[in-house]
Specification:
Oligomer: heterodimer
Strand content of chain A: over 45%
Helix content of chain B: under 10%
Radius of gyration of chain A: 13 Å
Distance between the termini of chain A: 36 Å
Order of helices and strands of chain A: EEEEEEEEEEE
Structural class of chain B: mainly beta
Shape of chain B: globular
Order of helices and strands of chain B: EEEEEEEEEEE
Number of strands of chain B: 11
Largest sheet of chain B: 6 strands, mixed
Largest sheet of chain A: 7 strands, mixed
Radius of gyration of chain B: 14 Å
Distance between the termini of chain B: 40 Å
């Protein structure tokens, strides 16, 4: 089954404690992206990757890091989480092409930073 | 950068009603996506369209490129249709894969 898998689904952590949210896709997609979703603001892009070792900032990259060492995995790293990073996070992937390609989303990770 | 507006923000309907959710965007696009998000759940792609109309079961999506407008229709609505519906657009041009999202429409269908 084609899917994007995020882990964990729920996470409560304390300010300053480094954490990683994993994202994996089994569709051999080149393009992967991380979004955060906040009430009243909708989905905003954090980082994206066009292929292995190719990453770039989205609209709200501050406080986040990513890596793309393998095509299937795109982890999101919070080196020193702060309460303003409490949010619902989504990973997504799609094929590269003309831009007219379907996007697949993970189930989401609800992060609370206290 | 595209600006995406959805209306209404919130919608309550009686079971069986015909529902329309609207999406407008500000500049040309290569594709428009309709997404569904159930409470506590992930995001599922319902439709991707660049012209015309698509139908899947009770759901119909239309797009008018000249008007920069798309609609999502739900016929014979059911309580299981209760969810947030999100419109997202891709900017045109080869190599453009960024999505710009609307803020979503929260639909509640009452039995």
């Amino acid at each position: 089954e084609a899917q994007v898998t995020q882990n964990p689904r729920y996470l409560i952590t304390v300010t300053g404690k480094k954490l990683t949210v994993t994202c994996s896709q089994n569709m051999n997609h080149e393009y992967m992206s991380w979004y955060r979703q906040d009430p009243g603001l909708g989905l905003r892009q954090i980082y994206y990757s066009m292929n292995v070792e190719v990453t770039d900032k989205g609209d709200v990259p501050e406080g986040y890091k990513v890596s793309r060492k393998e095509k299937r995995n795109f982890p999101l790293i919070l080196e020193s989480p702060s309460p303003n990073q409490t949010s619902l996070y989504f990973c997504a992937s799609s094929l590269l092409g003309t831009g007219n390609t379907e996007a697949f989303f993970g189930q989401g990770t609800r992060l609370t930073v206290v | 950068k595209n600006e995406v507006e959805q209306s209404p923000q919130n919608l309550t309907a009686q079971e069986g009603e015909f529902i329309t959710i609207n999406c407008s965007y500000s500049v040309g696009i290569s594709a428009l996506h309709w997404l569904q998000q159930h409470p506590g759940g992930g995001i599922v792609s319902l439709f991707m369209l660049s012209s015309g109309k698509k139908k899947h079961g009770r759901l119909i999506a239309t797009i008018n490129i000249q008007e920069k407008h798309s609609s999502l229709h739900i016929t014979a609505s059911h309580p299981r249709d209760s969810a947030v519906y999100i419109c997202a657009v891709r900017d045109p041009g080869a190599g453009s894969y960024q999505l710009t999202f609307g803020k979503g429409t929260k639909l509640s269908v009452i039995p």
